[in-house]
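Researcher: Structure prediction, please.
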Amino acid sequence: MTGLLFLIPVALLLGGLGLAGFFWALRDGQFEDPDGAAARILIEEEER
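Model: Predicted structure follows.
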């Protein structure tokens, strides 16, 4: 029973950190163009 008193706050803290990281990435624009980088790697650059 005492283990739960320790593990529940730790689990809530880790979940809160994950949620904060998700919102930080969302605000930073990490999910704006998910297919662009994958498509750009396949496009050949013109030779100069």
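Model: The mean pLDDT is 88.
Researcher: Thanks, that helps.
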